[in-house]
Write a structure and sequence with these properties.
By secondary structure, the chain is of the alpha+beta class. It folds into six domains: 65 residues, Phenylalanyl-tRNA Synthetase, Chain B, domain 1; 107 residues, Nucleic acid-binding proteins (OB fold (Dihydrolipoamide Acetyltransferase, E2P), Beta Barrel); 195 residues, 3-Layer(bba) Sandwich (Phenylalanyl-tRNA Synthetase, Chain B, domain 3); 67 residues, 2-Layer Sandwich (Phenylalanyl-tRNA Synthetase, Chain B, domain 1); 192 residues, Bira Bifunctional Protein, Domain 2 (BirA Bifunctional Protein, domain 2), CATH 3.30.930; 88 residues, Alpha-Beta Plaits (2-Layer Sandwich), CATH 3.30.70. It has 21 helices and 39 strands. A seven-stranded mixed sheet has the order 27-30-31-35-34-33-32. Strands 3, 4, 5, 6, 7 and 10 form a six-stranded antiparallel sheet that branches. Strands 12-15-18-19-20 form a five-stranded mixed sheet, with no helix packed on it. A hairpin with a 2-residue loop joins strand 8 and strand 9.
Length: 789
Amino acid sequence: MRLSLSWLAEWVDIPWDAAELSRRLTAAGFEVEGIEPAAPAFSGVVVAEIAAVAPHPAADKLRVCQVDTGDGRLQIVCGAPNARARLRVPLARVGAALPGDVKIAAAALRGVESAGMLCSARELGLATNQAGLMELPADAPLGEDLRRYLALDDAVLTLKTYANRGDSMSVLGVAREIAALTGGALKLPAAAPILVAGPASAARVEAPQAAPRLLTRRITGLDNRAPTPLWMQERLRRAGLRSISPVVDVTNYVLLELGQPMHAYDATRVRGALTVRLARAGEELALLDERRIHLAADELVIADDSGPIGLAGIMGGQGTAITAEVEEVLLEVAFFSPQAIAGRARRHGISTDASQRFERGVDPAGQARAMERATALLLQLCGGSAGPVHDLSAPDALPVRAPVLLRRARLALLAGAHLHDAQVESCLTGLGMALQAHPLGWQVQPPSWRFDVAIEVDLIEEVLRLAGFDVVQEQPRRLPQRFARHSESRIDERAVLDALSARGYQEVISYAFVDPALQARLFPDSPVLRLANPIAADLAAMRVSLWPGLLKAARDNLARQQERVRLVERGATFMEQGGAVRETARLAGIAVGSRVPEQWAASREAVDFFDLKADVSAVLQLAGNSVDFHWSAGGPGCLHPGRAATVHRDGEPIGWLGELHPMLVAELALPAPALLFELDINRALTAPLPQLQPVSRYPQVRRDLSITVPQDTALSAILSRVSVVAGSRLRELVAFDVYQGPGIEQTRKSIAFGLIFQDNKTTLTDAEADALMASVAADLGTHLDARIR
């Protein structure tokens, strides 16, 4: 937000220069991002009047002007179309320096001497698109230096506005803060009474919760062709707005001055009563910026009998736009609930000064003041007569500022210093708050414009930022140490990430908000939690998996010539179940590219399912050897059929891994297949408490077993049967060969195992080992149709 220092000085006495004011405002929590002059540097430009205009003898588009400077006359050749007698304009004398390093010298234009240059606002750096001469008021003093006359050495402050301080987005709001810092008082502009003489306006509110207050007034007989006075044009320009017409300029001026958005309608084009209501199904609206939007049922509109004529609190419509020919205007000033406006502008790709203020919250008691100020300015600039104000208010729906208790002890604790009661009271009353004595401190009533003051710490913040944060002292404190419980069965998160880091993965952190379209492609059957107010269209849904974020991160890395990507993320996913949201901590990863980094001793083989399975197994191994993890074929539909698996623990699914479906690989334009895994952290990585076991003093015995089984027999089923039959003497079981091909039936496969036996009490004999192997072979034959090779 941009505000000129001279405008602020009309509202409050400022005892500091611009630099010091900037420092003090920033220290008080109002960050000043920059200070700049109201106009670029130029010199030698004065106020002059064109006394006479004659055609140029040798050029049709040029004119010879006799210019009065107050101390004599000069002859100036000018090509501006609006050059005319008795017009006061800026004159750059010979020797003047203009923006852009332009030096003015005497010259002859097509044979006619010219002793200077009559200037446009663009040539002085005061506008970007003005073609004609800059027209000054008729009472501008001749010969006066233009910079001094227009106060162009005024400083313009650029302030950063915060989402919780909508009250600060105006001259009035910043002046309140300066008054609180200086201990001074506001100098409110004199309000002349409005003589009511025009017709009344008709309006109604059908959504009082969204629009608790609506004021309308009809003004007739005004002249919108009248020029906006230069002082108002300059204030708008310094605030970053261009002058359009008196009616539009007045509404913008009041917005900047008081922080209250308002809108003017061409009253002759409003059919029936002005109505505030929610949009209806199928309604459309042509906005002032010439876009046509489709309205949603939760959007508040301004309508008449013909339909919507404006998007409430955001932008008006084309159908009732103010033109130069307008002679009858309907003014609308309202308080719209922030909840009714928030997010609606961004939904349509719009951001306006009005929507920014309504979303943050405007003063619900400031509408009448804004209406009277705008009416007075319009009557002053355009003439006409004003009708009575039609006030529609729903007091029960207006926001109520509840009193807040501020305790001395709490203030002293958080401030780290003792503040005198008088200092605390001065800070709070200076901000417009009403105080009442309380045994513990003060009962504070926030003013109507302070939406951000709701709890005690809000008041403490206000006191400290005005008193100065340098009053906060460092003091030693003795605080009891309370250590959180850490279950020995819970695997430390750092160990999990370290294990994956050692295998080449890098940790990423992505948004919990994801692209709903991508998530729908990955998990079409999962219910989606959509955000009511998304920060962007591709971040509009809560994630049900970490995969959308990982895929986006991997794709961004691959687009930046990273040929081998290994990413892991630990985060929460969100699923709606039975009307409630279930949040689950998950661990997920993605691998794309070659199996190992590029090197001379290894070929560049692409990562495959078994590489990813090895990485996941390394993580699951942290839970200990006694945990029974089981792998079964299949997974979500977004994974490649036949190259996906579900991980089970104690019979319950805890995650998936596999290769991304080829169709999705093509849609995402990935240069290579992507391997993904995701685990439920709490269920997968809970380890049994460690138990001490004696180390056997007796030797191990190894026996190998080679069998054939049906092709669809899972390895995990074989390992499970062997472990059950071999019992406690089986120390290790490893599959060292899998074969399919000549010599084996087409419907079967061959698997070879190594079984290592050991007893804690005695040395196993060959006969005992052979008996165990016979039992294993017989059980596999009975339950899995296994045959000894």
